[in-house]
Amino acid sequence: MLKLLRALFNPQSPLPKEVAYYQQVLDDSSSWLISSQLYFLLKKEHRLHLTPLFFQKTLKVRSMHHMIISAMIAKEMERLLACFERLDINVIPFKGPFFAKKYFGSLSARSTSDLDILIRPQQMNAAVEAIQSLGFSSDVKYEPEHFHQVFHKFIPTYHFDLCLELHWHVLRKETSSLNIDQVWATAVPLAGYQHVMELSDLRMFYLICLHGWNHEFNNWKYFIDIIQMIHHLGRELDYPELFDLARRERTYRRIVHSLSLVYKAFPHLHETAPLPLPQSAGKHLWWSERIIGTDRGSEPTWPMFVRRMRQMDDYDTLQQRWTFFKREILPDPVTMSRIMHSTGQQQSRFVQYFWLYVHRFINLFDTQKFTLKKRPPEREK
């Protein structure tokens, strides 16, 4: 997959010629979520005809599927925003339809499968009542350790379960000095709205980098979002200002390591927007291509646990590392339910921790589950 993506983002690189390679791309579980992006990039550079016919047809079918779902989600987003606007609830949509239109140029150029919206903490109760009136519900209780609450709405026409995350913050407590009030202060009203805001390009790029890191860059979509923003913004992307922001909010190492990783995988970016960092900045990264297609919570193996421990180096302070370490040893119920593939948060934490360590013990020597097992396509976060 990396060979194809490098060629798509760098017109100077030739596309792979082997027909079998394109079948491998389609068979890769991680390709489903980025089919729209692949199709868009191939058409944009007028190179689609250079790929095998079966590859073109499959990408087109997948892209049409994603486009239908994305259009439906965009309509749901419009209803949500109209409701928030009417009730004077301030919101900032993340990613999703607005991100696709602004940075990819088209809703069909980037698949969307859920919605993320930032709400002012003091307006969360009003926001929850608003979305419940539109048919959304939640079976996951509020957890103070987390930074968003998940809601669902089943769309019968499309047989689709739409996921909506209402955020009151963008990072976990004690893992940064990010001032959410400052995020709101720098946002501006979206055209046609008073209470629906959008982030500056720099702040959006900053959060997209943190979002990819938070998901361990376990799908190529996180790389593509960052690369597309770099291509879109070019040399307007002010890296010194970005690094100053990251230092103030104590996320510097996460930002540096994220960008070092992306630039290492896609060297042509140094010409598009030079990264003012020494080569040693990404020397000891924990990431490898084997992570693509794996879910950090799919199997609680010890090899995965060891890798997660290496990620502590990505935090700026000892307090942040301690917070991270505690969460890995004793996860909160929201994380636990994801790791254990259950919604059994009714169980006591002691019982949940007991079963977690039973799984970790069982998988102690089974490294194959981590290195080889691919998970089903991941929902957009």
UniProtKB/TrEMBL annotation:
<dbReference type="InterPro" id="IPR039498">
    <property type="entry name" value="NTP_transf_5"/>
</dbReference>
<dbReference type="Pfam" id="PF14907">
    <property type="entry name" value="NTP_transf_5"/>
</dbReference>
<protein>
    <recommendedName>
        <fullName>Nucleotidyltransferase family protein</fullName>
    </recommendedName>
</protein>
